[in-house]
């Protein structure tokens, strides 16, 4: 199988699997409410598809094996064979070996030069194989695993630490921690007056800052480290003095603002990222190091607001993403820890205000980073700030406002509107560097807007809104060639489906159709069908992983259409559920066919072709619970379903669809089953005895007789597809008729209830004769080629099978006659011990053997004569083994005498036909 053919085969197998799993699962869920029906139907469809897939796969593998064998044989025949002399060539002598003595020169005539082709072949055979001397290339080493985000962060930290002066960097870090611990120890043990302690720390910080400033031109890296340590020390001093009430809050806040601005100015002026990082990290760590557990969150968050203001100021002039992420991590980590340990409901307003302030600051930082260069949203630095910020902020906000009704819905909506508005404003600026961040903000706005829907409404309304929103995003992604938008639209529709399933069973609506559940499924259906069509129309622009997405979305839409419609019928159409459900499926198939015609879209027509057939299988299964298929206006439903089915098949033929024969003959099987089932039920409601069982054999026999007419009618579909109906449509019905004949004759007494029983003229025997006549009519209408297709075994085996069925029927007819007229038993035990039954069977078998042998002798049918003789042997064995046990009865004496006379007459009238004549007749 070529690669293209293999890909096509796999695609078609996947499509068939998806279609069958979908259709079987939907109808299983519709006919058996709950997950059991859906699971059973899906599993049945999957197994059904795998049978077809494995069958095609085995056939393709057989073809490949055959082609490989042919290629191998051709290669063996064409391969040149080395001469035998080359195999016996002795090895070359070594240098130490003495050369052999020269032989006397003998003048010989020069041989004739061989042809050019022979010389070339000889030279090629004598040349050594140099390719064997070349060693194979060493195996390519495996690609190293990609580092994780943690590994990348740790690696960058170590590389930063090794750059410049690592000893100085380590020293400034240790010095900062040591000064912090010293301050805390001195405060805990009261070693110095508290004012003196803070003055000493501030003096040391200023000294570091001054020395670093003086060394900025000589040793820039070392100077930046000293300045960073000084900034961190000043942060620590002001914050700690405020905590101990040594500085008024207003003055402390002003000093913190001055320090933050000074650190920002120094870092920007010297283009020193390390100075900004050390200053910022020291500022954030200061309140943690000197914390006394007082819980003054106002001071803490005010202090952090000032630090973040410094980060924002630096971002105005420099694109240092490491600094931005550092401030983001410190701010929201410490805020989250405080929320988990020290938060109370009375703190909600102030804490939420600080949270919103931090959020707005870092949104501004993200925008400032894009002013000079576009963001790398795939990296963890830019991506964490753009996408991680709203997630963390909304999570902390939700933990505070959760007790307020609808607060989360309004909050999510506010986040969505904020990001959409901000994206629109940035888009209007026309900056190319804003392009990615505008798309990211638009996606975040859609996400948070979508999140507001389930927070405000129930799952069914949410499903409807999400479905429409997802379809809209997918349409935008198709129009603008945006993979992310298409993926998000698909995920949003899947989430809508899950939400709809959650709310579908468990809520009761009083209004039919115009309720949230039905409208939700309708929106899901329309969204899925539209998405499938848009993806179908833009196949050339789809990514490789989107192959088959149009099929999935189309099936998704049809599935929700069926679920919503069948659910409404089951809940509100109580007296005609069965018939209306069938009509609804018929209407669905017709609408899908029309959609295919209007949009030149083949897939809906394929689904419409499968839908009635699969629906019929589940409908027949569901009819078992109702006892007959025409219950609850089922006759109307079946009529509409068959009409839609054959109309779709006619459209498929016009569109040159292949494989429709099975849909035609399958419909004939279902039609036969429905008519037989309903006729049996209606007869059983009005009478008893053998009558209700007769339609199970008579109706298939009539269908076989219809297919066995010389000229099939109507012209469409029977005459147009004569081969399919006459062979594939009739063969399963013939098997069913044969099994019914055998079963009825082995189990039924043929009780005709309200009419007297007459041998061979009772309802059962007449029905069996009708079945055999229908089979004969069908066989006589076949051509020789069709007969060879229908029966590929020995023709004598077919004759034996028919003769066996007739033999069973006639014996059963005899026993039924003895039962109704003479009271003979019909059980196996009773018949074995009944003298009347055994004697009658012996005489009857003898007559059959006599008739067969006499007829065969006249027609010179050696095979038939042998069968009759075998039957006579059986009769003799029966007389000796069974009838002889009670020889004193009149019946058995009669049987012995009758069989003996028949044997004598047969021996005189029916000698064995000659073998040679029989062979000529057979030819």
From TrEMBL:
Decide whether keyword Transport is in the record.
no
Q: Where is the composition biased (Pro residues)?
A: 90-104, 134-147
Q: Where is this region: Disordered?
A: 81-147
Q: Do you know which InterPro entries this protein is assigned to?
A: DUF2339_TM (IPR019286), UCP035905_mem (IPR014600)
Q: Which UniProt keywords apply?
A: Membrane, Transmembrane, Transmembrane helix
Give the transmembrane region(s): 37-54, 167-186, 192-213, 220-240, 246-266, 273-291, 297-317, 322-341, 353-371, 383-402, 408-426, 438-457, 463-478, 490-507, 513-536, 548-566, 572-596, 603-624, 630-648, 660-677, 689-707, 727-746, 795-815, 835-856, 863-881, 887-910
Q: Which domain of life is it from?
A: Bacteria
- Under which name does UniProt file this protein? DUF2339 domain-containing protein
Originating organism: Steroidobacter gossypii
At the highest ranks, the source species' classification is: Bacteria, Pseudomonadati, Pseudomonadota, Gammaproteobacteria, Steroidobacterales
């Amino acid at each position: 199988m070529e690669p293209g053919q293999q890909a096509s085969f796999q695609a078609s197998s996947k499509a068939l699997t998806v279609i069958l799993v979908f259709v079987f699962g939907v109808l299983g869920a519709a006919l058996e409410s709950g997950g059991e029906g859906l699971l059973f139907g899906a599993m049945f469809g999957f197994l059904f598809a795998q049978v077809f897939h494995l069958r095609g796969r085995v056939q393709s593998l057989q073809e490949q094996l055959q082609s490989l064998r042919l290629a191998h044989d051709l290669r063996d025949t064409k391969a040149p064979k080395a001469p035998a002399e080359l195999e016996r060539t002795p090895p070359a002598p070594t240098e130490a070996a003495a050369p052999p003595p020269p032989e006397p020169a003998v003048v010989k005539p020069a041989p004739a030069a061989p042809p050019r082709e022979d010389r070339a072949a000889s030279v090629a055979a004598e040349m050594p194989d140099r390719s064997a001397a070349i060693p194979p290339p060493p195996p390519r080493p495996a690609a190293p695993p990609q580092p994780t985000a943690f590994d990348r962060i740790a690696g960058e930290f170590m590389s930063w630490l090794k750059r410049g002066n690592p000893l100085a960097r380590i020293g400034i870090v240790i010095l900062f921690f040591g000064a912090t611990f010293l301050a805390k120890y001195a405060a805990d043990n009261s070693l110095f007056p508290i004012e003196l302690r803070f003055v000493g720390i501030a003096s040391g910080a200023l000294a570091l800052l001054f020395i670093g400033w003086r060394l900025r031109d000589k040793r820039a890296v070392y100077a930046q480290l000293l300045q960073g340590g000084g900034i961190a020390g000043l942060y620590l001093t002001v914050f700690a003095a405020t905590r101990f009430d040594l500085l008024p809050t207003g003055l402390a806040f002003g000093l913190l603002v001055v320090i933050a601005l000074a650190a920002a100015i120094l870092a920007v002026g010297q283009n020193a990222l390390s100075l900004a990082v050390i200053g910022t990290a020291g500022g954030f760590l200061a309140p943690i190091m000197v914390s006394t557990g007082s819980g003054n969150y106002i001071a803490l968050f005010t202090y952090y607001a000032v630090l973040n203001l410094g980060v924002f100021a630096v971002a105005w002039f420099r694109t240092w993403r490491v600094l931005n992420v550092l401030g983001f991590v410190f701010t929201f980590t410490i805020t989250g820890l405080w929320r988990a340990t020290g938060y109370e409901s009375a703190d909600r307003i102030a804490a939420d205000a600080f949270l919103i302030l931090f959020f707005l600051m870092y949104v501004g930082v993200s925008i400032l980073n894009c002013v000079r260069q576009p963001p790398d949203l795939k990296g963890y630095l830019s991506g964490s700030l753009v996408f991680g910020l709203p997630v963390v902020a909304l999570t902390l906000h939700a933990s505070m406002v959760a007790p307020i009704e609808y607060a989360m819905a309004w909050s999510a909506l506010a986040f969505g509107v904020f990001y959409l508005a901000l994206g629109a404003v940035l888009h209007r600026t026309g900056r190319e560097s804003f392009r990615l961040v505008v798309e990211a903000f638009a996606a975040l706005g859609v996400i948070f807007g979508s999140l507001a829907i389930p927070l405000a409404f129930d799952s069914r309304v949410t499903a409807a809104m999400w479905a429409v929103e997802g379809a809209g995003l997918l349409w935008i992604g198709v129009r603008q060639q945006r993979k992310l938008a298409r993926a998000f639209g698909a995920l949003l529709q899947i989430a809508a489906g899950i939400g709809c399933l959650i709310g579908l069973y468990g809520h009761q609506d009083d209004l039919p159709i115009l309720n949230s559940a039905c409208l939700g499924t309708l929106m899901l259906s329309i969204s899925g069908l539209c998405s499938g069509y848009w993806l179908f129309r833009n196949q050339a622009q789809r990514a490789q992983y989107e192959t088959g997405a149009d099929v999935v979305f189309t099936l998704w839409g049809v599935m929700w259409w069926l679920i919503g419609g069948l659910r409404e019928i089951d809940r509100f159409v109580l007296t005609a559920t069965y018939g209306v459900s069938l009509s609804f499926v018929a209407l669905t198939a017709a609408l899908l066919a029309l959609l295919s015609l209007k949009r030149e879209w083949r897939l809906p027509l394929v689904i419409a072709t499968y839908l009635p057939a699969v629906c019929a299988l589940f409908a027949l299964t569901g009819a078992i619970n109702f006892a007959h298929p025409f219950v609850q206006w089922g006759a109307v439903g079946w009529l509409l379903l068959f009409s839609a089915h054959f109309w779709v098949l006619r459209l498929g033929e016009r569109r040159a669809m292949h494989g429709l024969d099975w849909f035609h003959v399958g419909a004939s099987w279902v039609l036969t089953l429905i008519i037989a089932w309903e006729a049996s039920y209606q007869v059983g409601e009005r009478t008893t005895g053998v009558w209700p069982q007769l339609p199970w054999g008579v109706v298939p026999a009539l269908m076989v007789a219809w297919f066995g007419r010389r000229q099939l009618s109507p012209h469409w579909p029977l005459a147009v597809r004569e081969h399919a109906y006459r062979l594939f449509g009739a063969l399963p019905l013939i098997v069913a008729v044969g099994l019914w004949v055998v079963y009825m004759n082995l189990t039924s007494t043929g009780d005709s209830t309200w009419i007297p029983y007459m041998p061979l003229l009772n309802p059962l025997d007449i029905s069996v004769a009708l079945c055999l006549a229908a089979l004969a009519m069908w066989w006589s209408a076949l051509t020789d080629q069709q007969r060879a297709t229908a029966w590929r075994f020995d023709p004598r085996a077919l004759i034996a099978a028919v003769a066996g069925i007739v033999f069973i029927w006639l014996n059963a007819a005899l026993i039924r006659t003895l039962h109704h007229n003479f009271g003979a038993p019909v059980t196996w035990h009773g018949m074995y011990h009944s003298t009347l039954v055994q004697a009658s069977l012996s005489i009857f078998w003898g007559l059959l053997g006599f008739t067969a042998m006499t007829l065969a002798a006249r027609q010179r049918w050696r095979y038939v004569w042998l069968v009759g003789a075998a039957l006579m042997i059986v009769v003799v064995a029966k007389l000796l083994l069974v009838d002889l046990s009670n020889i004193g009865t009149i019946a058995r004496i009669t049987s012995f005498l009758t069989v003996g006379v028949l044997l004598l007459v047969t021996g005189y009238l029916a000698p064995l036909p000659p073998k040679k004549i029989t062979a000529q007749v057979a030819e």
